[in-house]
Amino acid sequence: MPRIALVTCRPGPEVSVDRDLPGLVAALREAGADAEAVVWDDPDADWAGYDLAVIRSTWDYSWRADEFLAWARKTGAVTRLANPAEVVRWNSDKRYLGELAAAGVPTVPTRYLAPGEAADLPGHHEYVVKPTSGAGARFAARYTPDEHDTAVRHLARMHDEGFTAMVQPYVRGIDVGGERALQFFGGRLLHASRKGAVLAPGTAYDERKVAHPGLEPWRPTDAELAVAERALSAVPDAPELLYARVDLVDGDDGRPQVMELELVEPNLFLSLHTGSVPGVVAGILRAAR
């Protein structure tokens, strides 16, 4: 009977509820595993006592990135951690998009502004500013060139808190085709979903957003699958990934490009794709054994 920890975080006013977690724990127990949900920063957790720790909904980690990465290193040293600690480190900083682009993966064009750098913002098109470490559109906002002063204050706030900022053109393909999330589990496509635009015009950067508006099942195209697989193959050192989510949007040319590659704690949307639960359970059990 493998002992499995599904790793989550403490509830809080800015943390979403993991609606998949109770059902996944129950399904693993029904399949013969000794499974439980464990908070990642629980001082009493004995990580060495588990055969596998699966990061699921540590959705407060971007506020405490250094502490979380230290936890991942320590936990990965005493048990099998999925995904591996080095993958977590690489993927926790969205500057990985630059590495994907350099590897030839179609990605949303991205510039980075670190603390101390000038507020070099677009003057001729709509754009998005967000931190390189974040989840659920936290500290993200959409601006027109006329909103330059507000965007500068946004940058200053992030820089004061030590965040490096990302600046991307607002991809209008989101307004037409939405954002598609392709979920992989155990190296295979599990299912896909589509959602609407998260950032409405005029929404303040520090206002909480609906992370997955209008979520619905989606059948990925061959082009979307090809881009997603290219992104996964470009992850450094080709690690074994238990889970991955590739978020895609259509560029100005109508072709899919990577918005984000989620390898730390992606929502699996199992409440929408209930038929995927057996595959997730089987994949976790294989990893535990």
Number of helical runs?
Answer: 8
Widest beta sheet: strand line-up: 11-10-9-12-13
Strand content: 15-25%
User: Which range best describes the helical content: under 10%, 10-25%, 25-40%, 40-55%, 55-70% or over 70%?
Assistant: 25-40%
* Mean pLDDT over the full residue set: 94
> In terms of structural class, how would the helical and strand content be classed?
alpha+beta
Quantity of strands, as a count: 13
Which regions are unreliable across 5 or more consecutive residues at pLDDT < 50? none
Shape: globular
Strand/helix succession? EHEEHEHHEEEHEHEEEHEEH
Distance between the termini: 9 Å
Rg over CA atoms, rounded to whole Å, is: 19 Å
Major sheet summary line: 5 strands, antiparallel
Overview of the structural elements:
The protein is an alpha+beta fold. Helices cover 28% and strands 24% of the residues. It is built from 8 helices and 13 strands. The protein has helices at residues 21-30, 65-78, 85-91, 96-102, 148-160, 173-177, 222-233, 277-288; strands at residues 3-8, 34-39, 52-57, 80-82, 111-113, 127-131, 141-143, 165-169, 179-185, 188-195, 216-217, 243-250, 256-262. Strands 11-10-9-12-13 form a 5-stranded antiparallel sheet. Helix 1 links the parallel strand 1 (3-8) and strand 2 (34-39). Helix 2 (65-78) packs antiparallel against helix 3 (85-91). It is globular, with a radius of gyration of 19 Å. The model has no long low-confidence stretch (mean pLDDT 94).
